[in-house]
Structure formats: C-alpha cells, structure tokens
Design a protein that fits this description.
Elements (H helix, E strand, L loop, with lengths): L21 E6 L3 E6 H4 L2 H12 L3 E6 L4 E7 L7 E7 L7
Parallel strand pairs: 1-5
Antiparallel strand pairs: 1-2, 3-4, 4-5
Length: 95
C-alpha cells in the first residue's frame, strides 16, 4: 500500500471481507459484468476488492501465485469496485 507521496505503508496484508462482495468484472470482449468477489480469486483478490471499496478513491494491483496480474479500482467510497485481469503468465501449478 502506498500513500499519496508513493511512500510504502504496507504490503501483503489481508483485509477481512464481509460475505461475498459484488465487483464489476471487466472482460475485453464483453465489457463489465457484475460478479462476486469469491469467483474472482482468493484472499489477495478479495482483500484488494474490499480495500478499494472502503478506502476509495483507491486502486490495487494483485500478483497471484498462479501468475495472474490484476487491477482493482474504485472511485467512490462503498461503490462497487472494478476488477480487470491485466495478464496471465500461465505459471504451471507444479512449480
């Protein structure tokens, strides 16, 4: 987490998520659709979604162990965040 001056405030934090939060999931072919946070990914993704929801305006990048790099953002507090997968590196699960 960075502040407005790009100073590191923390990293690797998990934020408790109440239930199954909604998120706009962006597909390049379909545009945004509403999904639930649990269908997006694990704890890192759910934490990023909740962080952006409660601390908006906010944005987060998520780097998963499975090789996905994602972006989450929200412009207004308690609004539904937008999620987009930026790239999938296709890291095999055997590594």
């Amino acid at each position: 987490m960075l502040d407005g001056s790009a100073r590191l405030l923390g990293f690797g934090a998990f934020i408790p998520t109440p239930g199954d939060a909604p998120v706009f999931r962006y597909h390049k072919d379909q545009g945004p659709t509403i999904s639930s946070a649990s269908t997006i990914g694990g704890g890192k993704h759910r934490s990023a979604i909740e962080f952006c929801r409660i601390c908006a305006p906010a944005a987060a990048h998520v780097v998963s162990e499975d090789g996905r790099i994602s972006f989450v953002a929200s412009d207004r507090k308690n609004s539904i965040p937008l999620y987009a997968e930026i790239v999938s590196l296709g890291v095999p699960s055997t590594l």
